[in-house]
Structure formats: structure tokens, C-alpha cells
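Anyone have C-alpha cells for MFS transporter? Sequence:
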Amino acid sequence: MAENRPIRSRGLALAVLCAASLMVVLDSSIVAVALPAIQADLGFSPAGLAWVVTAYLVAFGGLLLISGRLGDLLGRRRVFLAGLTLFTFASLAAGLSEDAGVLVVSRFAQGVGGALASAVVLGMIVTMYPEPRPRARAIGVYSFTQAAGASIGLIAGGALTQALSWHWTFYVNLPIGVVALVLAVRVVAPDRGTGLRAGLDVLGAVLVTAAVMLGVYAISSAAWGALVSAVVLLALFVVRQAKARTPLLPLRLFRVRAVTGANLVMVLMVAGMMGFQFVTALFLQQVLGLDALHTGVAFLPVPLVIAVASLGFADKLAARFGPRAVLLSGLGLVIVGLLLLTRVSGAYFTGVLPALLLMGLGAGLAIPALMGLAMADVAPADTGVASGLITTTQQVGAAIGTAVLASVAASRTAGLGSLDHREALASGFRLAYGASAGFLAAAMVLGALVLARRKRREEVVEEREVCTSQA
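Reply: yep, here.
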């Protein structure tokens, strides 16, 4: 069993899973700063260029849920290896692209591979680490890859594009993917799924995949007709899950308070955090005048502080005070950082940097705590689909936050046409930071109301000692 594996082997398996997960997360942002170079090289139209990002997000977000369920049925290691292989080959195809259409298709294939690989990772980690304290530490490592990946992607994208070419934003995945594949075969223990005979709800898979794909596309492209269609398909999916003999997403999961609450909080939290990254990248370039490389470097404090918090002491705080308290405290720090940005002027070190440090600390505390809460009460047979669900809500939150905050900033800037253009842009970004703080405040209130307080490790030990003495 996973809990009997040698600690060194288990730690290496965790490192492989998190490295692959980080690579997938990086790919959602690493290409962002390379888009102007891609457009100039391949002749994309302004509208067509958006598909370099959208094709990846649509495939990735749309297939996470079914990928997680396939992990439960076929074995999570098998699905992980298949996804990692596809992602690596698709990265090579994207890097070799000399045609706009080929690049978009390659990005879609990357999204498919990324969904297969990343949907099952959290479920595999939970299975490998059944003990509460080591599990919290392992989830902290995984959460670092999720929280800091986008910022690291901006840094890497700027450096690779400026030093080499945009092709290397895809080529960089090749050595990582190959090494991760070789090591995963050796150190990640095989697991037995329940088998396809247990049933794969094909109709449900089609409905939810189409719904999430349409939803991500609609939010990213402001296609409101597609959004209505996505809502209808999602409603049909829920009806189907209530009646299916072997549902893709068992509705019993939502009777687990921690699962429902954590996923709702995740949507709001990621909406604020990912939207903030999008807005800040524009603020640094359009208001402060930084180039692509320096914009990436300006984000560097965020992953560094997230690493210190999530890898250094988040698990200890969760064990001492409980994950709910740590989550709410982390969200509070992020809100303070965003409120500081609503008053930012034009100075990075005195205006932007203090807010980034606070937000990195808050994210490094909040995300591991929320991940742990989302998986704490899930039955072993459902860890794959629960892992896919929490990753899906992350993607939905990112799409919502980016679309809403971009719209808020653009509307505010357009309404201040009489001002200096740079000041009008800054005003729009400041308002967007306020909207981002609103998302986080809603997440904090919802977490306080819905997520139940979980017993601290000391309380569990005390209860066991009392039971032992009474026996």
C-alpha cells in the first residue's frame, strides 16, 4: 500500500508529480509575454492571437473532470503518464510550428495532455500520504506549484523570449517532460482503478466537457450566447448525474460540506488572484513602462514568498490552529495587499512590492489550507474525481476573474478619456484591484460561514488519550 512505501521513494514520487504539475501550470502563463513575438512571426490577426491562449484553456478546463474520473476507473498513474506523454509531444509540435493553425492545434493538444496529467495529481498525493501531518506538508508542496506557477511562467516567458525566441517557451517543456516520465515510471507506484466495467457515464462526460469548454470560451471571449448554452448544458449534466447508475461526478460529493465549501471558495479566491496577476502584468508594462523580462522579474517576490510560506510553515500553522483559521488569515492578508494596490501610484518598490509580499504570504497560507479541506473527507474511490473537480474550479475562477477585471479596468479607462492616457490606465487598474479584493472578501465570508472548523492535531491526540484511559 502507498503508506508502506519507503519515505525516500515517496518523497521522490511527490517531487515528480509536483514538477509535472508545475510544468502544466507554467504553460498557462509562460506564453503570455511571448504573444507579440508570436503574432509578428506567424502573422496572427489580433482576434486570432487570443486563440493561442484560449485553445489551451478550453481543452484544459473542459477535460479536467472526466480526466479525474478516468483516473478512478483506469488507475491514476496510467492516466497521469498518458497525459504527460501527450503534453510533452504537443509542446514539441508547438515549438516547431511555422503556421498559425498548427500552433493553435498544438496548444489544444497541450491542454488535453495537461488535463489528463494534472487532474489526478492531488488524488495521488492524498493516497500516498494518509497521515495528517505529512499529507499537509505534501499538499503544501503541491500548492506551491499551483500558486506560484503562473508568476514563474511570466518570468520564464520573458527571459526565454528575450534571450532566445518564443519557440523556447515550448521547447523548455521537453527535458522536464522526458525526465518526469522516466522517473514517474520508476518511483510512482501503480494503482488499480475500479475498471471501466464500473461504468463511465459517456453522456455525462459529453455534457460537462461541452459545458465547461463553452463556459471557458464564453468568459474568455465575452461570447454571452455561448455562456447561456454552457449553463443549459451544465443543468442537463446535473440532471443526468442524479439519474445515472454510475455518474461521472457523484452528487454525493456535494453532501460533504468541506468539498462544496472549498470548491466555492476556490472559484472566488482564484478569480481574485489570477485576475490580479493579469492586471498587474499590464500595469507594470503600460503604466511603469517595463519590458517583458523586467515585468517577469518584478513578479519574482510572489513565488519566493509563497515558497517560504507553503513549504516552510503553512502545515505547522494548520496543525496548530486548524486549516480553516489559516485559510481565513491568508485570505485576509491577500485582501490587505489588494487594498494597498487600489492606492498605488507609479513606484514599484514603494507601491507595488509591499503589496506583492503580502499577497504572496497570504496565498502561501491560504491555498494549501484550502486544498487540504477540499480533499479531507473524500472517500478513496472518489479522490480522482474530487481532484479533477477542485482543479476545474480553479480554471473556472481564473477565467471569470481575468474577464471581469479586464472589463472593469477597460471600462474605467475608457470613461476617463479626458485624462492623460497613462493616468487613465492607472485609474482603471486601481479599480480592478478593488474588484479583486471584492472577490477575496466574498471568499473569506463564504469560508467563514460554510467551512466547518476542523479539530486541531492536539485536540485529536487529547481525545485519543481520553478514550484510551477510559478503556
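The radius of gyration is 22 Å.
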